[in-house]
Amino acid sequence: MKYNFHTHTIRCGHASGTDEEYVISAIDNRFKILGFSDHCPYYKLSFPIQRMEWKEYKKYLKSIDKLKKKYQKKIKIYAGFECEYFSNHLEQLKELKKHCDYLILGQHHYLKDNDCYNYSSLEELDLLLKDIHNAFESGLFLYFAHPDYYLLNRPIWDDIAINLAHEICKLSLKYDMPLEINAKGFRLNRYHKNIVYYPYPKFWEIVANYGCKVCIGFDAHTPNDLSDNIIEIKKYVFQYKLNLITTEEILKRIES
Questions:
Q1: Strand order of the sheet with strand 102-105?
Q2: What does the angle CA 11 – CA 15 – CA 18 come to, to the nearest 5 degrees?
Q3: What is the number of other CB atoms lying within 10 angstroms of the CB of residue 156?
Q4: What 3-state class would DSSP assign to 158?
Q5: Which residue ranges make up each domain of the chain?
């Protein structure tokens, strides 16, 4: 079954297209399930080109709910958020979870003095691992989006990067947390041949050795992103002998 639970909207400030255009594109590309998971807002924090504003989240959920009803005979639609785990906003994440279908973890940044910073230094990568651990332990998240994202900010495959990959895999097994192969990287690689974006091959070799559960996310920021060739993505899964979970298992996790 063709699915995607990683779809953004114009509200995040770096995507385009209407909510309905994503749904139409999904139907045209024979998706059976479409999950919206735009970058979640944080109360009293404003990041105009990174995530929606707090005042927008109810309108966002209302819009998706209307589309659920309008297209219910053609496609199953879910509404969620992609979130960073910020420890001092944990109660807010719990509250958001009550009003949507699911949350996915997208740990792009850490929060300091009400601003976002990349994980890049050794100290920051230690913080990343701690944040991932706490996020998994919280039980709030459906899966971990682009777990190899940290290699964008520090693109060096050394002992530090390797050890972090091992630790992420150990946590994935401990908390039964699927890791997402992110299709956005395939799109970026087609336009930037001199940069290796996620999915990062050596990271996924380690994932395969551990046998961690894996899912696919298109990370759509335009409706056309949903036209990506699923065959290319599945070839990657087979190439690295990854433990791809079924659509039914993802739905069971949402509904549990």
A1: 3-7, 33-39, 76-83, 102-105
A2: 70
A3: 8
A4: coil
A5: 3-255
pLDDT at 191: 61
C-alpha angle 48-77-9 in degrees, rounded to nearest 5 = 15
Q: Which residues, 6+ apart, have CB-to-CB distance to 142 below 8 Å?
A: 5, 80, 102, 103, 104, 178, 250, 253, 254
Q: What is the pLDDT of residue 26?
A: 97
Consecutive H or E run containing 127 = helix 122-138
Give 144's DSSP letter: B
6: its two tokens = 């990683």
Q: How many residues does the chain have?
A: 256
Q: What pLDDT, on the 0 to 100 scale, is given for residue 162?
A: 97
* Rounded Cα–Cα distance for residues 13 and 194 (Å): 27
- Alpha helices per DSSP H over the chain: 19-28, 57-70, 90-99, 122-138, 150-153, 159-174, 184-191, 201-210, 230-239, 247-255
Tell me: pLDDT of 229 over 80: no
| Right CATH for 3-255 from 3.20.20.140, 1.10.8.60, 3.40.50.1370, 3.40.50.150 | 3.20.20.140
Q: Which range, of 52-66, 110-124, 126-140, 222-236, averages the lowest pLDDT?
A: 222-236
Name residue 20's beta-bridge partners: none
Q: Which amino acid does the sequence have at 199?
A: P
pTM of the predicted protein model: 0.95
Amino acid letter at 200?
Y
Q: Which residue has the tokens 């899966």?
A: 143
Q: Examine residue 147 and say whether the peptide bond preceding it is cis (omega within 30 degrees of 0).
A: no
